[in-house]
């Protein structure tokens, strides 16, 4: 069983590592074919299919589609990581505080989560982003965090609740340790595993959400380069020029699948029952 879990962890880890490398250094990979510059365009090649030196063909503006897909990984992965990190930090703070103090603090945080849960997330994100003119990666990430933190916080609270009444926590309190020290040194480290197990899964979901919002026209805007922008631009020409939609969609699907597989493997690794 342990060897099987190890094998399941290696393959998605390699894929995710490669995707992160592409997102961090897109120029190294974009130059493998053609000129590698996503902003060098020639309308004479508009919508042409794959050719020698340009394996993905050209987009509507005559730009090399392969270079755009490679550079598009940076925005999509960056937003996925920023939103996941933001949600994890909020969940750690509010989840542990809610579980430790309980009472009115727990009720206040719980009602706030209920308000966010009760509001249609997609509608809310569309309404907020539609009113903002400057929609860069930081703005889109902030809106996704606004609607994404309650789920992670509820998971963190449930995990922390199972720790706050254990003997080692009570012993720390009886020895005079303050609430902040108890939460930071004892409750948080011992209740973090379930949240970490779903973190990688959340990255894939966030990347999909960002691409969907951009596809709908309320996410990132040109001249930003992302897979969502490419899907949005390609939707009107898909029937006659399928390569415009095919390659960004495949890249998006492969990235999300890699993070989902990694999340499943990490979750099984951290689950005592699976061992």
TrEMBL record:
InterPro entries noted in UniProt: BP-dependent_transpt_permease, MetI-like, MetI-like_sf
Subcellular localization, as worded in the UniProt entry: Cell membrane
Topology within the bilayer: Multi-pass membrane protein
SUPFAM superfamilies: MetI-like
Pfam family, one: BPD_transp_1
Annotated family: Belongs to the binding-protein-dependent transport system permease family.
Keywords: Cell membrane, Membrane, Transmembrane, Transmembrane helix, Transport
TM ranges: 9-33, 77-100, 112-132, 192-218, 245-266
Keyword Protein biosynthesis: no
Keyword Transmembrane helix annotated: yes
Signal sequence range: none
Main location class: membrane
ABC transmembrane type-1 domain: residues covered: 73-263
Protein name, entry field: ABC transporter permease
């Amino acid at each position: 069983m342990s060897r099987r879990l190890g094998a399941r962890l290696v393959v998605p880890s390699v894929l995710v590592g490669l995707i992160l490398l592409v997102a961090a250094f897109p120029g190294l990979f974009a130059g493998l074919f053609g000129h590698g510059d996503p902003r060098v365009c020639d309308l004479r090649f508009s919508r042409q299919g794959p050719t020698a030196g340009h394996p993905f063909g050209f987009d509507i503006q005559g730009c090399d589609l392969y270079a755009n897909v490679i550079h598009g990984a940076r925005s999509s992965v960056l937003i996925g990581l920023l939103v996941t990190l933001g949600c994890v930090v909020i969940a750690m703070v509010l989840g542990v505080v809610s579980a430790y103090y309980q009472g009115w603090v727990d009720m206040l945080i719980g009602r706030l989560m209920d308000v966010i849960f009760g509001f249609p997330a997609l509608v809310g994100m569309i309404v907020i982003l539609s009113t903002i003119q400057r929609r860069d990666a930081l703005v889109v990430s902030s809106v996704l965090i606004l609607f994404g933190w309650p789920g992670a916080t509820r998971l963190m609270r449930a995990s922390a609740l199972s720790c706050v009444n254990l003997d080692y926590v009570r012993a720390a309190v009886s020895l005079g340790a303050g609430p902040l020290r108890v939460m930071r040194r004892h409750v948080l480290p011992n209740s973090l595993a379930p949240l970490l197990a779903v973190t990688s899964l959340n990255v894939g979901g966030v990347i999909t959400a960002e691409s969907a919002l951009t596809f709908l026209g309320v996410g990132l805007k040109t001249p930003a380069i992302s897979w969502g922008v490419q899907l949005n631009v390609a939707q009107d020409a898909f029937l006659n020029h399928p390569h415009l939609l095919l390659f960004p969609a495949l890249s998006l699907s492969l990235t999300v699948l890699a993070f989902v597989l990694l999340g499943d493997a990490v979750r099984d690794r951290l689950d005592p029952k699976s061992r």
